[in-house]
Amino acid sequence: MAAAKNAQDVVTIDVYTAKGLLSIGHHYLDVRTVEEFNKSHVEGALNVPYMLITQEGKVKNPEFLSQASAVCKKDDHLVVGCNSGGRSLRACVELLNDGYENVNNMEGGYSKWVDSGLAGDKPGQDLKTACKFRPE
């Protein structure tokens, strides 16, 4: 049996590398909440929330792996992103431990994507208000 994976086993890439991988057919798995995703997201992204908003606050989505397997195959090449990189790193660890082989964490998340001008003609300032934990 293979040893359990941890955060040190995750390949982290910058937003420009992520954009390049997406341009050659990798899938973008956005693990932000549905509310965050609906405000704005990377074009063509798949949304499987890693955390859910409940009355008690944010809790880990107990169905994350089963929902991910409904939209991604274990041999798909994935770029995983969230808002700033924390949730996506944890999601990558879970995906690797579940047998996914080609998983990359996008450093800085969607916030960095927007700050780098990769959100296209969408007004960056409007997107920043949607990102709760971003420095101004």
Mean pLDDT across the residues is: 89
N/C terminus separation: 46 Å
Strand order of the largest sheet: 1-7-6-2-3
Could you say what the CATH topology is called? Answer: Oxidized Rhodanese, domain 1
Order of helices and strands: EHEHEEEHEHEHH
Name of the CATH class:
Alpha Beta
Structural class: alpha/beta
Query: What would you give as the CATH superfamily?
Result: Rhodanese-like domain
CATH architecture type:
3-Layer(aba) Sandwich
Beta-strand content bin: 15-25%
Radius of gyration: 14 Å
- What's the number of extended β-strand segments? 7
- How many structural units, i.e. domains? 1
The major β-sheet equals: 5 strands, parallel
Q: How many helices does DSSP assign? A: 6
Shape: globular
Percent range of helical residues? 25-40%
Poorly predicted ranges? 129-136
Give a brief rundown of this model:
The protein has 136 residues and is an alpha/beta fold. It has helices at 15-23, 34-39, 64-71, 86-97, 109-115, 124-129, and strands at 11-13, 27-30, 46-47, 51-54, 57-60, 77-81, 102-106.
SSE topology:
Layout: E1 11-13, H1 15-23, E2 27-30, H2 34-39, E3 46-47, E4 51-54, E5 57-60, H3 64-71, E6 77-81, H4 86-97, E7 102-106, H5 109-115, H6 124-129
Parallel strand pairs: 1-7, 2-3, 2-6, 6-7
Antiparallel strand pairs: 4-5
